[in-house]
Design a protein that fits this description.
It holds the Pfam family Acetyltransf_2. It contains three helices and four strands. It has about 100 residues and is an alpha+beta fold. The longest helix has 9 residues. The mean pLDDT is about 90.
């Protein structure tokens, strides 16, 4: 799996077109295999990838990052989206969660 990063070097939008297209259409891309919702927080981040909810809290003063990960049952997905991401769905979500490996 290739990891993508961003720098502070200014770029035109067309710089990202090819990679964006690949990530949205390649059958091996995480973005075509998993439903993804993520949110940066003041102390870390939250992510819902498929049915796996992750909450990471940075604790630099202790030299650690605290990871809390759990699988969410279907009936709790909408509640997690509402409470943790402030996302209210108009229709029932059917998360994509094909078996793929990924790294947080």
């Amino acid at each position: 799996m290739q990891i993508y990063g961003f720098s502070l070097v200014p770029r035109e939008a067309d710089h990202f077109f090819d990679t964006n297209h690949t990530l949205q259409t390649d059958p091996s891309s995480l973005f075509t295999n998993k439903s993804i919702c993520s949110l940066q927080t003041p102390t870390g981040f939250r992510a819902l990838i498929g049915w796996t909810f992750s909450e990471v809290t940075y604790k630099p003063e202790e030299g650690v990052d605290v990871f809390n990960m759990k699988d969410i049952p279907d009936e709790e997905i909408e509640q997690i989206l509402r409470e943790k991401f402030n996302v209210k769905l108009q229709n029932k979500l059917k998360p994509a969660s094909k078996k793929e490996c990924y790294t947080l």
